[in-house]
Input
Amino acid sequence: MSSDQEIFHLVYRSIAEDDLTQKGIDGILRVSHKLNRKAGISGILIKRGKVFLQLLEGPKNKVLTTFRRIHQDPRHHSIKTVIETKSSDRLYSNWDMAYVEDADEHAILEELIPFLDEATSFADNSKEAIMPTLKIFSEKLSKES
Ligand SMILES: Cc1cc2nc3c(=O)[nH]c(=O)nc-3n(C[C@H](O)[C@H](O)[C@H](O)COP(=O)(O)O)c2cc1C
Output
């Protein structure tokens, strides 16, 4: 596998600012779809209560540049990188940035909920479960769409 075929995956968790509205989230998604498509980035943004969990996947330099911008964004805080890993496949190849929130609670996989809890500390053992769980979730979303 040559390095330019490798897909870099970055998962982080953050907390939304108190004044972030649905309109604000719509704006984030609009910009994300446009810029991610251009950069060859796919992934998913999940919001449960005030907690965001996002997977960014694509060429490593593009993912890191995008994450640097996201990291500086005042609309969220307490950003914590959970996973950085490489593989030959994307989990969310069908989406520039899928979005799921707890308003459509039924759509959030029960197994994902522990990762969307601010109290979860991401000990190494719980980290290992996150990529397989996100993969199962992408299969569920593919079937629904
Ligand atoms: C939770 C969250 C997720 C975001 N996800 C993305 C994303 O996937 N791609 C992206 O380009 N910008 C994303 N953004 C927006 C960026 O922070 C940034 O505003 C945008 O890339 C435009 O860059 P600029 O503000 O420097 O013009 C996200 C912001 C937040 C708060």
